[in-house]
Design a protein that fits this description.
- The protein is 32% helix and 25% strand.
- The protein is elongated and about 60 Å long.
- Strands 1, 4, 5, 6, 7, 8, 9, 10, 11, 12 and 13 form an 11-stranded mixed beta sheet that branches.
- By secondary structure, the protein is of the alpha/beta class.
- The chain has 2 domains: 140 residues, D-Maltodextrin-Binding Protein, domain 2 (3-Layer(aba) Sandwich), CATH 3.40.190; 93 residues, D-Maltodextrin-Binding Protein, domain 2 (3-Layer(aba) Sandwich), CATH 3.40.190.
- The mean pLDDT is 94.
- A hairpin with a 6-residue loop joins strand 2 and strand 3.
Amino acid sequence: MTPDLNPAAKAELAPTGVLRAGINVANFLLVTSKDEKTGEPGGIAPDLARELAGRIGVPVKLIPFASPGKLADAAGSGVWDVALLGAEPSRAEQIAFTAAYVEIEAGYLVPAGSTLQTIDEVDRAGVRIAISARSAYDLYLSRILKHATLVRIEGIDAAHRHFVKEGLEALAGLKPGLVANADEFKGSRILDGRFTTVQQAMGVPVKCQAGAAYLRQFVEEAKASGLVARLIAKHRVRGLSAAPAASM
């Protein structure tokens, strides 16, 4: 069932008459293509933004950001009305998030000959972990690691290159991406398990409470109706799944 849209919610979601959707183009699972003519991003996240715009009866304008950190930094600046990115407690100070619409496992890649065997063993003194700066999993590991050192590099591909070039002990990342990294780095392996599951969600600036309420209903309906699952199938994305219904 399509959630009810009240005038206050529509005014907050599209204050200019256009839904301006902030998109993290660095997420290779949710943004999988670019239109050759317009340059607009394509994939699960852009399609979900387009669906939302259609539901509220306004055009959509996709606002691309090179990293999730830059997208989060723009909260409240008036550049975007709705953002699609990983929900993290530190970001929730500025962004009112929905529950996740998809979940993505995050783990570690280690080089050939590494003595590290489990996820827990990575958090040791002397272990250096290459990571994409200000990604959702960077924010998570920043809170929970006690001994290992995070080496923050701007961008997923750059973090992988740094890991290889500098001979670091581990590379943190989304597991589907680590599979590709392992194929390129002979002898490397992905540790079993995960250190977290990244919750990809939608959000609005915290002041937009009516818009946030509508957006939460929209995401729950998108999961329950099978829309999210259909978008995953449409874009042939492997390594992520539709998130479960939010507990009410």
